Amino acid sequence: MGVEQHEPRVVNMLLDFVYSYVSGVLSDAAAYAEQVGRPAGEVENEDVVLAVQTRAQLSFVPQPPVELVRSLADQVNNRRLPEFDPRAGFGLRVPPDEHLLVQPNWRVNVAAHQQGHAQRGTH
Predict the structure, then answer these.
(1) Phi/psi of residue 9, each to 5°?
(2) Residues 6+ apart with CB under 8 A from 16
(3) How far, rounded to the nearest angstrom, does the alpha carbon of residue 36 sit from its chain's CA centroid?
(4) What is the spatial distance between Cα 99 and Cα 118, in angstroms, rounded to a whole number?
(5) What pLDDT, on a 0 to 100 scale, did the predictor assign at position 74?
(6) In the chain, where does DSSP find H-type helix?
(7) Whole-model pTM over 0.70
(8) Which one of 2, 26, 93, 103 has the fewest beta carbons within 10 angstroms of its own beta carbon?
(9) Whole-angstrom distance, CA of residue 117 vs CA of residue 22
(10) Over 80: is that where the pLDDT of 112 sits?
């Protein structure tokens, strides 16, 4: 895809998005399959296609017309930028990384994983 560099947090955000999207689509597809009388867990291709189409219509916003975007950009660009205060430092002040919502919020519990394998007698 041509990506040569990325922030490490991008991978976690993409994984989170893909997991939530796919699990939502599959649960919708299972509900559609159940609605037409199929046994639980028997999802067909048509159910998944319908679920994807429904999600696309409800989840993703269509692109606005170019004229609207241009008029909004002109309105925003006509405002003066705030005066720069050299005492405040350069650029926007953002909180430290540990206070950002895009930080990974999971940890692998290696000790519990190894203990579970030891109890089962596997490695």
Answers:
(1) -70, -20
(2) none
(3) 31
(4) 37
(5) 94
(6) 8-35, 45-59, 66-77, 110-120
(7) no
(8) 2
(9) 30
(10) no
